[in-house]
Amino acid sequence: MKFTIKTPAEQDAMRRAGRMAADLLDFIEPHVQPGITTDELNDLCHRHMVEVQKTVPAPLNYRGFPRSICTSVNHVVCHGIPSDKKLKQGDIINVDVTPIADGWHGDASRTFAVGKIAPATERLIDVTYRAMWLGIKQLRHGAHVGDIGAAIQQYVEAQHYSVVQEYCGHGIGRTFHEDPQILHYGQAGTGMELQAGMTITVEPMVNVGKRHVRLLPDGWTVVTKDHSLTAQWEHTVLVTETGYEVLTLGARERANGPPV
Q1: Distance CA 84, CA 88 (A)
Q2: Burial of residue 241, with CB atoms counted within 10 A of its CB: 0-12 exposed, 13-18 middle, 19 or more buried
Q3: What is the CA 77 to chain-centroid distance, rounded?
Q4: Cβ(35)–Cβ(87) below 8 Å
């Protein structure tokens, strides 16, 4: 299994890339409003990466993906392609960004409310966010990959939601995706042991309905099979000897700390 242990200097490079991803999501959040198109969100992010951050948008042309960010609206689980469709009041949208800073990838996503949303939809977003953090809190040198998935699955299913199983987190560094795969379901004490110096993403996708998904003919967009709402959150995290360091904290999280 191919994975990389980052040196102290490489960890610093990943911290910078992670901060770029977090800052990009902070930048785009106020633009997520009724009436804007996901193409416009893509263009804003693209210009911010290229002109302001001096970073490279990793998704653009990655295995043929045609845009610089992923925008997944309502029942779109992941890899939504920005388009001319306008967001409307009550929608939710996951914005997934991966700027490359000096050759290193910072990967993060957040689910945003578009205007005022229903309380049940707010609950989905909150549960997904907390599930991500419960997974992150399992990280330390010697922990098992299965510890992350077990913590996420147990919490999500106790809230009467389901966890998508076809898509997962991953190692990250100079390459967009490397080992290990980070499943968001499973059994504690199973799977590969984590090592200090690894950088991985934890990014659960949580559905209101059943966990099953399908891939649309465009080859990218993944939707819930039953068209139920879905949400996702993602952080890039460094594994340390005693725990973890989240590299993609936004300004709000840096001020308030984790929710769990």
Answers
A1: 13
A2: exposed
A3: 11
A4: yes
Work out whether strand 76-78 and strand 244-246 pair parallel, antiparallel, or are unpaired: unpaired
- If one counts every other C-beta atom within 10 angstroms of the C-beta of residue 179, the result is 14
Question: Hey, what are 119's tokens?
Answer: 């309380």
Distance CA 52, CA 55 (A): 8
Answer yes or no: is pLDDT of 1 > 80. no
128 pLDDT more than 80: yes
Strand 213-215 with 235-239, pairing: unpaired
The whole-angstrom separation of Cα 212 and Cα 82 is 23
Most distant pair of Cα atoms in the chain: their distance: 48
Q: CA-CA distance, 119 to 125, in Å (whole number)? A: 10
- Asked if residue 59 lies in contact with residue 67, where contact means CB atoms within 8 angstroms, the answer is yes
The full set of domains in the chain, from first to last, is: 8-251 (3.90.230.10)
pLDDT at position 73, please?
A: 98
Q: Is residue 204's pLDDT more than 80? A: yes
> What is the full DSSP assignment across 181-217?
EE-SS--TT-SPBP-TT-EEEE--EEESS-S-EEE-T
